[in-house]
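Recall the central idea of this unit: under ordinary conditions, the amino acid sequence of a chain determines the structure it adopts. In this exercise we apply that idea directly, starting from the sequence alone.
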Amino acid sequence: MKRFSFLLIMTLFSIATSFAYGLKQDGIYYNLNNIGATVTYASSSYNSYSGIVTIPSTVTCIDTYDVYSIGESAFRNCRELTSITIPSSIESIGNSAFLNCSGLTKINITDLAKWCKISFANTSSNPLAYAQSKSLYLNDVEITNLVIPYNVTAIHDYAFCFGHFTSITISSMVKSIGNSAFRCCSGLTSVTIPNYVTSIGNYAFEECSELTSVDIGKSVTSIGSNAFSYCNDLANMTVSSNNNVYDSREGCNAIIETASNTLLYGCKNSIIPNSVTAIGSSAFNGCTGLTSIIIPNSVTAIGSSAFNGCTGLTSIIIPNSVTTIGAFAFENCIGLTDAYSYIQDPSKVTVGYDAFYVSGSFDYSSRTLHVPVGTLAAYQADNNWYPYFGQIVEMIAVASIELNQTSAELTDGQTLQLTARLMPEDATDKSVIWTSSDEAIAMVDQNGLVTAMGAGTATITATTTDSSDLSASCIVTVQPAGLKGDVNGDGSTSIRDVTALIDYLLSGNGTNIQMNNADVNGDGNISIKDVTDLIDLLLSSAD
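Accordingly, the structure predicted from this sequence is:
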């Protein structure tokens, strides 16, 4: 019957004057077909709607039709459209459906689960891209904390792009996050990808400018291109230790593809581990918060646009191990003043198009390229390097390195500051990479601060980043933390410990006392102050 009605309606309209629509009802234009009704525009000039528009879930014209789609350019150029209500019956929204709807202040939906499942043609299909407030409303209540319903298994492409949310909770039923699903979401500071999600689409969180942390669950096996590009404030990136495809080894604040040892995504606090062999395309793309990065000598390839748009990057170290630098790898790094290349023969390195280029009328005279001794002429003759640096100078290599301590004994939880002295004093690059042979025993940050983690022995090593490849080490022995004040080691604190401590101070014989426990105030020395602190400890315990 509906097919007969549809043919009758089409016949009637073909007799009348030709319009871009087949039905107008309550100020909304539709085209009808066997499936249902599609919202459309009145004429090719577009701008068919203004004010408040509420799309119904059905329309009746002889028969009842489900309103299942918003067609291509349906609300295009409707600059006076202020509010739109989209029913749960909508399954798809066409190309440019809301293009230039700059007057939108409210986008209201009636079913959040159905919204997640809509097939958007592209960014211009989603009204959030043009709304002034960027807020999404559910049954006239603004969504600030977005909670994906449990009956959603896939968040479709472009579903929430350009929206404003203070938090996002993705349910354990979600398996995939579509392309550009949360692109340009403002207000969003952290994202946790739950353990059941397997794929994250291209540009999924691109340009989430306030995003600071990302946690990737154990089941993610696919992360699309530019998924976290241009997230300027991103500072922490972690991957579940149970993930078999990706990892964030050594607390590197990056996402690494485990099998290939390729760093796929980094942030402003990333440290590239020595085990990484490649930096992926667009790995740090648009990371404006990145100020410096040391590329270890395990890396052989730097992907295209790897550091493109890192405007805060002031220095870069490129090791001799690198054989490939992709096109646009350091393009538009306008803050880059010093690049240290340890490549001995630049002619043997494949450098892509405009690897160091800056668009516009950029003054390259502010840039210096530091190169190994004896390679100045080779770099000056290489058009991949010379035009993009105002000065090329040969480096002075490090001749020796030593630490302020070669051995140390700590108790669990204590810290130790190590410092490295590099000679000669005028060496060009005096930076080092700090590593620990066993982080379960002692961890070290890139400032040389050692933290005792558990009983045992670990070797802390500082390695030069220049071509000298020198290193120096400190052996750290960690003892279990004892009971402070248990000087005689009987497992408790009492007046007997005060006596033992006084005896030690008078005699200097520490054979029968627990030295770690005798340092009651933890200042690194054993003195009369520890006696008074121990007495205070006993008195407070008695109270």
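The first helix runs from residue 2 to 15.
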